[in-house]
Amino acid sequence: PPAPERVLFPPTFSVSEIKNKQRRHFMFLRWKQQQRKEKLAAKKKRKKEREALGDKAPPKAIPKTIENQRVYDETTVDPNDEEVAFDEATDEFAPYFNRQTVPKILITTSDRPRGRTVRFCEQLSTVIPNSHVYYRRGLALKRIIPQCIARDFTDLIVINEDRKIPNGLVLSHLPDGPTAHFRMSSVRLRKEIKRKGKEPTEHKPEVILNNFTTRLGHSIGRMFASLFPHDPQFIGRQVATFHNQRDYIFFRFHRYIFKSEKKVGLQELGPRFTLKLRSLQKGTFDSKFGEYEWIHKRREMDTSRRKFHL
């Protein structure tokens, strides 16, 4: 019998023109399969050509990603810039970086928090050394801040919730600010993380800050750095990571284990969450008369998918 012919779609044919839903789905899957085969064949052909050329093969093309196509930002920081060095020597975080202050953090919540937010705050306090959890019952933040300053707290973290789910984080550096408002998403508590390690110990963790490249990113990075004590206790092998990608800040807390001289295993300890900066305010929390350094305006700022602010 003659060999079955390959399905050839007419050049102007669109699967969406097929009226029958099942047939349309079937033809779409077939079309996808054909695309995959062609892609694989082209890949094999390229590989053979590279092997045939050996050392003369041209270097592999770097795939285009949103990150490496990023629109240049004029506020990107050059590490050797004297102006930046001067700003950092005189900003609100300078006393911390000069080791004049020791971080002491108050973690509080929106009014009358529910179970999940309560557990999240407790777990966050095991990640940040020298942090204390206080549940608000109708007390305004304006009243809390002077009390924090009087008791030598260096930072205030407020976890907001909506329908029992943590959805916002306010980080205020005391006594003079600044204050950052973040939208929080993808919160995972310890028990919801697969293959998690044992409970974290009380050792001071190391801190990794990735990709905070602009002036705004630098400020946010310094803000996160000043939550943790200076000298990490490497014996605890615990690492807190703030990784910025496309203006989303991913937080992870790991313990590393040396399996051999070359291999390192990672255990996630949790919790994990994602932050998106909404605004940066000068001074401490003031929703009415606060002066804003930066506000995320979606309609104006999100016109290009390749423009990032951190």
Automatic annotation (TrEMBL):
Pfam families: Brix
UniProtKB keywords: Ribosome biogenesis, rRNA processing
PROSITE patterns referenced in this protein's UniProt entry, alphabetically: BRIX (PS50833)
Residues making up the signal peptide according to the UniProt record: none
InterPro entries given in the database record: Brix, IMP4/RPF1
Location of the region described as Disordered in the Swiss-Prot/TrEMBL record: 39-68
Annotated ranges, domain Brix: 103-286
Domain of life: Eukaryota
UniProt keyword rRNA processing, yes or no: yes
Purpose of the protein: May be required for ribosome biogenesis.
Protein name from the UniProt record: Ribosome production factor 1
Organismal lineage: Eukaryota, Metazoa, Chordata, Craniata, Vertebrata
Gene designation: Rpf1
